[in-house]
Amino acid sequence: MKKQPRKHSGKTQKIEQLRVSQFFRFFFTKWYALLFTMFLFFHQPFHPIHAVRYEYEPPRIRQELFTLPTEVLLPTRTKNTLTKEQFTANSIMIIDRESGAVLFEKNPDESRYPASLTKMMTALVAIESYDPSRVVTIQEESQAIGNTAHLQTGEQYTISDLLKATLIPSGNDAAFALASAYEGGYFAFVQRMNQRAKELSMNHTTYLNVSGVEQEGHSTTARDIATLARVAMKNEVFQEIVRLKSARIVEQKSGQERTIESTNQLLSRIEGIEGIKTGWTDQAGECLVTQTTRDGHTIITVVLASDDRFGETRTLIEWAFNAHEWKMYQVE
Questions:
Q1: Residue 47 within a domain
Q2: Model pTM score
């Protein structure tokens, strides 16, 4: 009887096809793996000698980028210290401007109303944003409350003169005029002030207005103010304005000049003082930030919520220079 060829079921054929597929997949995978391993072994850039050469021959730009100073000049205390209790100020900060070293502090991170110290940031943002020769027309800013520079509706002033009117007599109207001239308007300017604060790591500062009028949530700390002062006083335009006891501003349409006077009573009364800003409101109390340079060494003082900002600042400045010597330290 003739033997009939065996018929495979559909299931059996699928199993045999799967086995063949697995065999070829295994065969080619192994060969590819072997070839790739041989390529890595013989390919020259991966040779251990080359790896060492690459590691110890970094690009020149990296060497310059990570160069560290070998010495640093720091203030060293040589005499008696101050006590926090001898000051009425709620918060105090004294720093060496160059190194950032802290010479004295009292409640440096306690949240306080900044009053017109706000205008330090207002001015810095304006300096960084505007052409100083740009002319701005005064509008509703003339109705500003609090301390003003007596700007009138319809008058025109350059950005340069508005900066002077903001920082020297601490004019709220001038601060509002600077903010209103910003692309996007007043609130966009305030937003930029907060962005700038973040860029400077002023992590406990929030600005809600440009003049410092009391507003819930508008706050800062002595440490943040010292940080801002340290940056602002390295700006030549800012520095030149805040050291002035008085200045003349010009109304552009009429050509009329007038004199504005500084609110900082310590200017020219303390050796080496160079500004920078006063502030006061009922809730903020008396506030004052100063920069003083003697014998090539510069300190910044911050006094918040004081009963005698000028007297206490004078005491702090004299103590800082009399009780410290600046010495060079080697950095290893």
A1: no
A2: 0.78
Which residue type, as a one-letter code, is found at position 16? E
**Whether the Cβ atoms of residue 260 and residue 164 lie closer than 8 Å to each other:** yes
Is residue 213 within 8 A of residue 99, CB to CB? The reply is no
Distance of alpha carbon 190 from alpha carbon 114, whole angstroms: 15
Q: What range does the domain containing 292 cover?
A: 76-330
Kindly state whether residue 45 falls inside one of the protein's structural domains: no
Residue 150 tokens read as 């007596």
* CATH code of 140's domain: 3.40.710.10
pLDDT tier at 275 (50, 70, 90 boundaries)?
very high
β partners of residue 273:
292
The whole-angstrom separation of Cα 329 and Cα 99 is: 12
d(CA 166, CA 175): 5
Total domains, the chain:
1
Span 67-96, pLDDT tens digits: 566 788 899 888 887 899 999 999 999 999
Q: Which residue has the tokens 């052409």?
A: 131
Is residue 29 a part of any domain in this protein?
no
Residue 32 lies in a domain: no
- H helices present in the chain, as ranges: 10-42, 48-55, 60-65, 118-129, 159-167, 172-180, 186-199, 222-232, 236-242, 309-322
What count of other Cβ atoms lies within 10 Å of the Cβ of residue 308? 15
Three-state secondary structure of 270-308 = CCCEEEEEEEEECCCEEEEEEEEEECCEEEEEEEEEECC
